[in-house]
Recover the amino acids of this structure.
């Protein structure tokens, strides 16, 4: 892999991780204030549609961005009403918001543009174009022959839309807001112990609504990025589960801003790898070693615990071992490839496995075998002032 | 705040929620330039106006009964199993393996075998999230969401690399052998000389779904295990004090839930498609959430809610064929129903409770001056 490929992969990683990062920070504010939000996906989708639709009709991407923000904020207000004011179930409200956005965007898109649930292609001023930094090369041919530092500068630093730089600025800003301001301290406190915040004479409802609205703003930017910067227009279900992956990243990062950036870049890297390298190959023996090793680790852990651990983890280990043995036997061809030779056969890793890595890693993080992810203590519970 | 009488809680609250959802949906239809009354007529007529419409409506109803019961059983233990979609997909995988690789002599035996396979695959798939919830305290909602995505990845892989016959482009399994084809209700009607349900997918699984309703009712309200599940759902600490093992109840409730979701596959995979295709569940797992909320987690309620969503689903298809309203209007209505019955239910309940309280206290207030 030459240096340019590496830079291009890093560049793709950044592009893939931006919507994740914005949505992840959105979820961070909401969940740190004790409001679970599985409606990130829906808010992004609604914002993506309205941003694209309005910037197409007005010809200005900035007005489009405002429309996207408004759509996302409107859904946030619904979520806030349901989960803060009316003390409803936050998870169910989030589920409903996802369906509402998935349905409404297509219904409205079809009614406005009659193109099968998409907006027309955006171009010119109705899109966020990449910012070319001074001295950066823009033509592919020039970049290919340029020296490595210039390649890095032109391909990785320069050429992103303004929203990309904004998203990365959001990370220190969020950290500062949450950990270095009075507002941030109160916001984190309201997610851990709302009664204490209430006793100090600070409005729990007000704080939580602020957090939910910040969440809506960031989701709105994430959605607008998807439809007006990353792509040129809205297509049906274009968020493609990014809201859930952002949620996964948030858990993986244990609800901390800098770690959230790390998690989003990691998950973005999985997307970039999946897009760029369709064939990732390994010798069979390594796959077998990994599978059997995992099984052995899990079984040895389970044997020291309860019966239920032995049943579930033991069963799962047995399944992994079976897969390993099955693959080994499958690679052996009698008379041509012996059992030993089969170990050195090259096996293509399923692309679905790479695509599922964010989800698998999140489950591992939640399981807490390697550093436990503990959510804010008051998360998901509506606050009742008096009993 | 006074408590509502039981009949109002069970019937009035869902009904008012549904009414609110319907009004908002009508506004949406109005906003995109269609006549809501006309749309309603097309939907109702398309869903229950003919035996063809009924055939599809009941087919969808069967799916939704299974996924609705799955969510409801877990809800009784106060566990939100959002992974019905993934469990139903994997249940389909179980059906495909068992129908394809075992030479069944007769459909009735195949049905038993495939039902067992579907339930087992669904239950095993939820076993890991259940274990993580019970033993490690990982939030079941997040793990089951993640497992939905893992399930769809697993399905794409299995269809492309294991089940797909060589030379075929479409990622789908071969058709199941003839001996495993379930009799449709049309086949049954033919025996009696009728021609109802011609060329519709509704099949004998409908009766299994109804049986599942009865069994779930019996399990939850007439067995010791059901009592333990409900007690655990009402108060975990009280249940623990009474000697109920939380790990055991979490595991069992979720395994039953996953098994029910998996069972859906005998309807859509074995009964309708008769082969395994990509995205076989078409979101039925998520509709189960709306069905369980609407049906107040009771099998009778789940049945009626499933029927309602069956009508909605089939009616939505017809509506999108006959008018310019896209089929996603069903998603909007589904979202509104989930919102009003699940998250905003206090909005309906509080005014109703106030009304009941006012009606009840008036005679008392009138009697005070007389004393």
């Amino acid at each position: 892999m030459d240096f340019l490929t590496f830079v291009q992969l890093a560049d793709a990683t950044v592009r893939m991780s931006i919507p994740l990062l914005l949505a992840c920070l959105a979820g961070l504010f909401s969940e740190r204030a004790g409001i679970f939000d599985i409606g990130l996906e829906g808010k992004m989708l609604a914002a993506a549609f309205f941003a694209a639709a309005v910037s197409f009709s007005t010809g200005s991407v900035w007005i489009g961005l405002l429309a996207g923000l408004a759509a996302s904020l409107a859904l946030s207000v619904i979520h806030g009403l349901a989960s803060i004011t009316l003390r409803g179930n936050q998870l169910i409200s989030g589920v409903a918001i996802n369906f509402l956005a998935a349905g409404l965007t297509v219904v409205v898109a079809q009614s406005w543009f009659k193109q099968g649930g998409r907006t027309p292609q955006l171009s010119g001023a109705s899109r966020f174009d990449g910012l070319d930094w001074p001295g950066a090369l823009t033509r592919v041919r020039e970049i290919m022959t340029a020296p490595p530092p210039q390649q890095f500068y032109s391909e990785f630093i320069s050429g992103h839309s303004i929203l990309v730089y904004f998203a990365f600025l959001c990370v220190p800003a969020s950290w500062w807001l949450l950990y270095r301001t009075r507002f941030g301290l109160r916001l984190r406190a309201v997610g851990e112990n709302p009664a204490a915040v209430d006793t100090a004479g600070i409005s729990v409802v007000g704080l939580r609504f602020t957090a939910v609205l910040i969440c809506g703003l960031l989701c709105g930017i994430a959605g607008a990025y998807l439809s007006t910067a990353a792509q040129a227009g809205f297509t049906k279900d274009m968020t493609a589960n990014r809201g859930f992956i952002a949620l996964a990243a948030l858990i993986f990062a244990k609800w901390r801003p800098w770690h959230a950036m790390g998690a989003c870049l990691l998950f973005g890297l999985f997307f970039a790898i999946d897009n760029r390298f369709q064939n990732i190959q390994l010798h069979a023996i390594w796959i077998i070693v990994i599978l059997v090793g995992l099984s052995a680790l899990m079984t040895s852990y389970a044997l020291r615990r309860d019966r239920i651990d032995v049943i579930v983890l033991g069963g799962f280990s047995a399944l992994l071992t079976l897969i390993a043995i099955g693959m080994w036997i499958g690679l052996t061809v009698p008379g041509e490839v012996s059992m030993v030779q089969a170990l050195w056969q090259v096996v293509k890793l399923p692309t679905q496995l790479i695509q599922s890595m964010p989800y698998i890693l999140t489950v591992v993080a939640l399981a807490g075998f390697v550093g436990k992810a503990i959510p804010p203590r008051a998360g998901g519970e509506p606050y009742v002032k008096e009993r | 705040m006074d408590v509502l009488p039981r009949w109002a809680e069970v019937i009035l609250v869902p009904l008012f929620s549904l009414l609110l959802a319907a009004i908002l949906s009508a506004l949406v239809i109005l906003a995109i330039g269609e006549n809501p009354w006309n749309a309603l007529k097309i939907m109702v007529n398309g869903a229950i106006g003919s035996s063809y419409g009924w055939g599809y409506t009941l087919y969808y109803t069967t799916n939704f009964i299974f996924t609705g019961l799955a969510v409801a059983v877990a809800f009784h233990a106060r566990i939100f199993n959002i992974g019905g979609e993934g469990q139903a997909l994997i249940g389909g995988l179980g059906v495909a393996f068992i129908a394809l690789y075992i030479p069944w002599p007769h459909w009735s035996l195949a049905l038993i075998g495939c039902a067992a396979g579907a339930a087992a695959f669904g239950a095993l798939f939820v076993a890991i999230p259940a274990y993580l919830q019970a033993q490690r305290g990982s939030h079941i909602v997040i793990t089951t969401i993640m497992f939905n995505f893992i399930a769809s990845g697993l399905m794409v892989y299995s269809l492309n690399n294991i089940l797909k016959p060589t030379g075929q482009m479409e990622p789908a399994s071969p058709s199941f052998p003839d001996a495993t084809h379930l009799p449709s209700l049309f086949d049954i009607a033919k025996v009696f000389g009728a021609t109802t349900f011609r060329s519709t997918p509704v099949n004998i699984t409908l009766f299994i779904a109804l049986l599942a309703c009865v069994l779930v009712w019996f399990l939850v309200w007439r067995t010791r295990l059901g009592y333990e599940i409900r007690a655990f759902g009402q108060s975990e600490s009280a249940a623990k004090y009474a000697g109920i093992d939380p790990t055991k109840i979490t595991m069992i409730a979720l395994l039953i839930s996953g098994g029910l979701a998996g069972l859906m596959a005998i309807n859509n995979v074995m009964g309708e498609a008769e082969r395994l295709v990509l995205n076989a569940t078409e979101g039925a797992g998520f509709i189960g959430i709306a069905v369980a909320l609407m049906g107040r987690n009771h099998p009778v309620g789940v049945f009626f809610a499933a029927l309602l969503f069956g009508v909605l689903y089939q009616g939505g298809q017809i509506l999108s064929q006959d008018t310019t309203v896209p089929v996603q209007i069903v998603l909007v209505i589904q979202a509104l129903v989930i919102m009003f019955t699940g998250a905003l239910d206090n909005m309906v309940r509080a005014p109703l409770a106030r009304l009941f309280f006012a009606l009840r206290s008036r005679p008392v207030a009138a009697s005070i001056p007389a004393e």
User: Anything to note?
Assistant: The two ends of chain B are 27 Å apart (CA to CA). Chain B touches chain A through 56 residues (CB under 8 Å). The CA atoms of residues 21 and 336 of chain B lie 5 Å apart.
